Amino acid sequence: MSLLTEHPSEYADSSSNGWTPDSEKAHEQGKPPELDRDEKTTGRRASVAEGQMKHSKLGWKRLTICLIVEAVALGTLSIPSAFATLGMVAGIIMTVGIGLIAIYTSYIVGQVRLKHPHVQHYADAVALIWGRFGYELASVMFVLLLVLITGSHVLTGTIAWVRIADEPGLCALIWGLISAILLYVLALPPTFHEFAILGYIDFASILVAIFITMVATGVDASDSLGGLSAVSWSAWPPADITFAKAFLSTTNIIFAYSFAVCQYSFMAEMHTPPDYVKSIWALGLIEIFIYTLTGAIIYSFVGSDVGSPAILSAPKLVSRVAFGVALPVIFISGSINTTVVGKYIMGRVFPHSEVRYVHTKKGWAIWLVLIAGLTLVAWIIAEAIPFFNALLGIISSLFISGFTFYFPALFWFSILKEGKWNATRKNVGLSIVNGAVLVIGVAVLVCGTYASVEDILGSYKTGSVGGSFTCSATSYEG
């Protein structure tokens, strides 16, 4: 931390230390960015201007929808199983507490964008504090995280199709391919203003699916011997809980609040960037409300045997219906991650060309191939790691720990803090808060990764994992 504050002129602004992604590319080409040969003709300049206008139509309401699409999906379906591991009390405290922290760190993320409007993606922000090394590191983390999330949606899509079709003799790889194709098609809209239209369907889909699951599990519990009072839920963690299992459940909750990673990408298309504050508060409170109710109610209806994703906890016929209703959220929420990665790659490879805006034949041709390649990689990951909780844990621990926790804390210390940390009471208070967030991020990185690896090894030892690229439908039963 001290290394970041001792030399603010070196780290506080990437432009001040002479490095930005665009300036490096221009240097390699031997000319400044503004003289890029793709912009020499008036026609090309007009095309670029048209593209910029097309990608600057996002308002705060549609930003909220994009953030909901990116965040409220898999996380919701994993919360009840986290409650079963942590207990009702700890589950509620973790869900609300992590949600509030996510709102705060998302606010910090947005403040960096307002102070440095050239920031287009998360890697650009990390470059402000760590220069080229930070840019390249965050770029790898950014792309890997979003591709892994898309892969987890392929997995959930496969689980859904297997349950809906109820044809155990049919090779499950077929459902994975169908899921990948749907994710590909839905990822093709190149602007978030256009994509947000799908978001309304996405949000309605998850709400209805959750409602069906709640009602079905509640009715099933009431009709069982002993009724609701016989359900085996507990306010406290099980006596035999291990550290690895508890922390893995915590990472599932953290995964549910992973909206900051795409925030810069969405804000880059806003026509009024300061309005982002309305979006993160709306999203954060909606998430806390949905996650807490979903986790607590379904856990209290099903008990310690609650499945993950939670729809598996409903009676089989009802779960088939619920999965059918949830198909839009599974594929729309997964596809937006591919769109974000695609836009990042297009912007990096064609920083000053009209191609990056995907409104020419060449732009569309490259975009179609790029999205296909990213979706193919996601499908391979999904088939290689056919288990839900461990995949979520790996994603959260390795990547979201940084994007949601320790990077925003470092942003405050390096970019947003005014004066010394103890100059004012406000600085002292915020230094303590951001220091705590930094510690949380590092703890999630280390402990969460350990817990996820232990879970994977344990699954293979007990034979509960069917293997990679398997046709067996039983490997996708939750």
Task: Characterise this structure.
About 70% of the residues lie in helices and about 0% in strands. With about 475 residues, the chain is mainly alpha-helical. The chain starts with a helix and ends in a 16-residue tail after the last helix.
Short description:
The protein is mainly alpha-helical and 478 residues long.
Mean residue pLDDT: 86
**Could you give a short account of the major beta sheet?**
none
Number of DSSP helical runs: 17
Helix content: over 70%
Low-pLDDT runs: 1-18, 23-31
- Please compute the radius of gyration using only Cα atoms: 23 Å
Distance between the termini: 42 Å
Task: Report the strand count.
Answer: 0
Order of helices and strands: HHHHHHHHHHHHHHHHH
What would you call the structural class? mainly alpha
The amount of beta strand, in percent, is under 5%
Query: How would you describe the shape?
Result: globular
